[in-house]
Amino acid sequence: MAKKLGKQTYVMDTPPTIAGFAAIGSKKEGEGPLGQYFDVINFDSTFSQKTWEKAESKLAHDTVELAVKKAGLSYQDIDCIFAGDLLNQCIGSTFGVRELGIPYLGIYGACSTMAEGLMLAAFLADGGGMQNIIASTASHFCTAERQYRFPLEYGGQRTPTSQWTVTGSGAAVVTAGGGAGPFIRAATVGTIEDKGIKDAANMGAAMAPAAAATIQQFFADTGTRPEDYDLILTGDLGQVGSDLLYELLLREDVDIKSRHTDCGLLIYDPDKQDVHAGASGCGCCASVLCSYILPSVVAGRLKKLLFIATGALLSPTSTQQGESIPSVAHLVYITSEPGQGV
Amino acid sequence: MAKKLGKQTYVMDTPPTIAGFAAIGSKKEGEGPLGQYFDVINFDSTFSQKTWEKAESKLAHDTVELAVKKAGLSYQDIDCIFAGDLLNQCIGSTFGVRELGIPYLGIYGACSTMAEGLMLAAFLADGGGMQNIIASTASHFCTAERQYRFPLEYGGQRTPTSQWTVTGSGAAVVTAGGGAGPFIRAATVGTIEDKGIKDAANMGAAMAPAAAATIQQFFADTGTRPEDYDLILTGDLGQVGSDLLYELLLREDVDIKSRHTDCGLLIYDPDKQDVHAGASGCGCCASVLCSYILPSVVAGRLKKLLFIATGALLSPTSTQQGESIPSVAHLVYITSEPGQGV
Lengths: 342, 342
Known about the structure:
By secondary structure, chain A is α/β, with parallel strands linked by helices. In chain A, 33% of the residues lie in helices and 23% in strands.
């Protein structure tokens, strides 16, 4: 079973392994710099479905199917799935996996969903008696746009701080101790942070304090420094949020800049694909992790990875009622070797 | 750490204890047969807030505060909170607890949220290295009505199969091994079931198959029978769903009728409070459990309790798009004695 370290960090006893993972994207993601790393790029963003919501469900379904297949398992081998998304009542996930017969535990962490799912899967593989657990999430530009912002047909102008919701998905099968890795060694559960940002078109600013709090807590809990890691990967702060993250951490004498990048800055080409401040959506960091990043851990090019997914816990209703934006960030420490401790 | 039993059931190694719990309701709940058991009945259903959503957040906040106090703990003692609700993006919970500084893991299980939270809390207390974990949820008639159905001012007529959303909440502090109980001995993670029901005003019919599947699986996994338990408590199937549950289980030669009741049938008086098929909402089974039921376990009047919370995983969007209603039910086995196994 996991052991608590410091205030919010838990170190796995026998680090669970990520036995299989998959990422699917659509046209814009395929045309971006990471396009070649996705398992599937479907240039039809309807995914042959009649509505955008059903397209998102299809995306979630196909990614889970592929991750299970790549892990060399069948649905009967899976003890449970942690899934969630941005849609009201998480219908992208529930309708996506409803026919698979896998015990289902729904989670809601907005764009922090992938890290939340991975950490819960690791906890239950390490100390819950489960063998194989899926963490899954997806997002779709067209469902998010019409639910959170404007009807697609309206063609509203986007502000410079806005981020572009990824049409993409990631799913990972986390397996109890043993295996070849990548390994989930530790996790830091984030607190809700809210510094009063009310601009729903500036998620980076709203989420940066949550990322800073969790990253700083992890270093405090483990007594380690940014230089101890190969990569500190946030998702999805974009440019505005990443700059703020550096500033907030520097105030605490933590300098992560040389080790840091953000999934929201990797998936699209800033010169050729105009997405303003970067990318976002549950599927952004999930698909970047499961396409471009995890293979580098498997290959040993990345040995020590901190994956921090950030979520803005607002709704259109809370924004309309004048509320600020609470955010959360969860951290998962992933390594190429099983090892012990942090 | 927990051990897997059969296909979907997990038996805790050192059963965690529910060290503190609280329930808050409003006028209608106070006037019902369980009113006297609530910790607080606030006859002002706005809870002194400016919007119904903020009222629901206040309800969630106050219940968590009270549960922590009743457990003899402070917020600094809490390792994490599992919370969720019916509102889009779960803002009832996120805004409710954002100022508490407690590590936050959002869950979405619709009205199955309380059981999902309790089981995850038990897993993490038993094998995750955590000491104190909160499971919390709330619902509010006025937020649910306007989000899922009609504007409150519209005064739409309700169908005979419809259920009334409880304005209420429940929160429980689950503490690692030891303590005086009640104890969480085992949990069964439910699968998504969807038998094609499309009537969003008939949740009982949509959710009964999920309850039946999980209950049957628990008996199969543990080799036990309904007679082995003092109470089989579902929430919230109401009258229609309870009748269907009996019918579905009888087909498999499982007769639970003499041991069963449903939270949706307990909280309001069917003669004096016209709620048609019963009550519903995340806060229904959470508040019934944390007001009327758990004290009976503490007192030893109930020794062996199966608590099964059911959730309908639909959204207004999925209904408008002609979809049927996927449902899930999670089971938590609660006892007055720590014991071992099931």
